[in-house]
Amino acid sequence: MAKELKLGFAPLRAPSKGILIVFCDDSLKVGAATRKILGDVADQLPAAAAADHFTGKSGAVLDIVLPTDLKVGRLTVIGAGKTEGLKSKDFLKLGGVAAGKLPSAGGEAMVAADLPDGPMNPDAVADLAAGATLRAYRFDRYKTRKKEDEEKQGTADLTFATASPTAAARSWRARQAVADGVMLARDLINEPPNILFPEEFARRATRLRKLGVVVEVLDVPAMKRLGMGALLGVGQGSVHESRVAVMRWNGGRRGATPVAFVGKGVCFDTGGISIKTAGGMEDMKGVMAGAACVVGLMHALAAREAKVNAVGAIGLVENMPDGNSYRPGDILKTMSGQTIEIVNTDAEGRLVLADVLHYVNTKYKPKFIIDLATLTGAIMVALGQEHAGLFSNDEELSSRLLAAGEATGERVWRMPLGPEYDKQIDSKFADMKNAAGRHGGAITAAQLLARFVAKTPWAHLDIAGTALGSPQSEINRSWSSGWGVRLLDHLVAEHYEA
Q1: DSSP structure class, residue 472
Q2: What is the CB-side half-sphere exposure of residue 278 using CA atoms within 13 A?
Q3: pTM (2 decimals)?
Q4: How does pLDDT run across 237-268, given as a tens digit for each residue?
Q5: Domains and CATH numbers, the chain
Q6: What is the CA radius of gyration of the chain?
Q7: How far apart are CA 1 and CA 19, in angstroms?
Q8: What is the pLDDT of residue 67?
Q9: What is the rounded distance in angstroms from the CA atom of residue 84 to the CA atom of residue 95?
Q10: Farthest-apart Cα atoms in the chain, separation
Q11: Is 457 helix (H, G, I), strand (E, B) or coil?
C-alpha cells in the first residue's frame, strides 16, 4: 500500500499512464464507457480471465501487465459479482479492493466508475472513494526503524473517472467526514496507553471545537459534586485522574430534543484488584473503543454538518491496582443514588457507564441513548467477532439499528433482557452487585445499565468482539476498525435529521 493516498474526480476517459482499474460483472461484462476506454483490449478479457481462473466474483482481481493498445502500465479488472442491486457497503468494498492493488511506490491510478448497467451514480463513486480511504489507513507513527521497502513508499494519486465528477466530489464531502471520523476512532484505539490516558483523551476530544462542537470536560472535583461515585471508584487507583468529556453538536432546530451517545472510555484495564492474567493484557489499551467511536461519530456529524442535535459523552478512567484502588466488597454510591456492591473489580465498564448514562439522561432528556462498550468477553462467546450484541428497551430503536447494521456491514444481533436476568444482579448488601457470574454475563451486564436509563429509549451495544482485533476486511487492515461510527452515522442520517 502506498504511503499516502490523494483522491480526485475526473470525467470518464482513457488515462495516458499509470494504472487503469475497471470493473466487470460475474459474466465478465464491462460497461459501455469502460469498453470504449479499453478498445480492443475488452475483447481479450475472456481469454485472460480463463488463463487466470478469474470469474468476476465480487472482490476478485485480474491483473494484466502492459496491456496491448493501452498506454497504461497495468490494467486491473475487479469483479463486482452480480451488479443488480449493489448497496453502499458493496461499493465501499470495491473501493477498498482497488486501493489494495495500488503499488507501494505510489504513482498515478485511475478507477473507471462504470458498470455493465451504466456509469455509477455520484453516491456510489463517493462510496468507492471512502472504501479506498479506509483501506489506505495505517498507524505507524511510533516506528523509527523502517524496512527498506517502507522507505521507498510514495504517494498514490487515485482518480475516480465518472460521468458526473462535480456531483461525485459533492457526495464525497459527506463520505469523507464519516471516513475521517472512522480513522479518528482508529487512531484513538491504536494509541498506546502511556500516551492516551484519561486527561489526554479528554484533551483530544476538545479538538472537535474546531468543527463547531461544544465540548465540556468534567474533572474529579466536578464529578464529586455530581456524586459520580461509581466512575470515580473505578479510577481512584490510577495516578491519572478520571474525566468525563461531553460533546454537543447543535445542527438541528434550536431547542429540539437531542439524540445521545455514551461511550465507555477505560483507557487501560488491568482488572484492578481482580487482576487479569498477563496473556493479551496489552490489548487492554483498546477497551476505550466505545468512547473512541463516540468521538469519531461526533466528528462525522459536525464535519458533514448533520441537521441534528446530538450529545456524545464519554467516561474516561484507568482501572489500576494500587493501595487506593477500589476492592471487592466495596459499595459505591452512583450519581442516581443507587448503590452497587463490588464483587469483581474487572467488571468496571458498567460502573463508568452507570454514572454517565444517568448524567446524560437527566441533564439532556434525549430522544434516545445508545451506549457502546467493550463490556464483556461473554458477548464474544455468543457472537464471535462478526456481530455486536444489541440490548434494548425499545423496539423501534432496535429495528433501526438492525437495519443500519445491514446497510453498513457493521452488524448487530438482538440479545434478550428480562426480569429473570435482572434479579441475578440483586445484592444482599446494596441495591445491586456489579457482576452475577459466568452464565449470561453479557446480559446481566446490560441489565445493570438498564437500571440507569429509566424509561428513555435506550440501546446498549457490546462491541468487545467487533472493536478490538477487528476482522480484516477490504476496508480495514487495522487492529481496530473504528467500529460503530458508520453504523451510528447511518442511523442518524436515515431517521433523525431534520
Answers
A1: P
A2: 0
A3: 0.96
A4: 999 999 999 999 999 999 999 999 999 999 99
A5: 4-162 (3.40.220.10), 178-495 (3.40.630.10)
A6: 24
A7: 14
A8: 87
A9: 18
A10: 81
A11: coil
CB 73 within 8 A of CB 17: yes
Q: What is the pLDDT of residues 346-403, one digit of tens each?
A: 999 999 999 999 999 999 999 999 999 999 999 999 999 999 999 999 999 999 999 9
Identify the weakest region by mean pLDDT among 198-202, 423-427, 467-471. 467-471
**Cell digits of residue 107:** 504513482
Which set of grid coordinates corresponds to residue 422? 435482572
Cβ–Cβ under 8 Å, residues 489 and 178: yes
Which among 4, 293, 18 is positioned nearest to 136, based on CA atoms?
4
Q: How many CA atoms lie within 13 A of 170 on its CB side?
A: 6
Burial readout 302-333 (b: 16 or more C-beta within 10 A, e: otherwise):
bbbebebbbbbbbbbbbbbeeeebbeeebbbb
Q: Provide the strand spans (E) within 270-400.
A: 309-319, 331-333, 339-341, 369-373, 388-392
Least confident range from 67-71, 127-131, 184-188: namely 67-71
Helix 88-100 with 395-408: angle, nearest 10 deg? 30
Alpha-carbon gap, residue 242 to 10, rounded angstroms = 49
- Using DSSP, state whether 89 is helix, strand or coil: helix
Catalytic positions, written as ranges: 276, 350
Q: Which of 55, 64, 134, 54 is nearest to 94 (CA)?
A: 134
The set of cell numbers assigned to 43 is 475483447
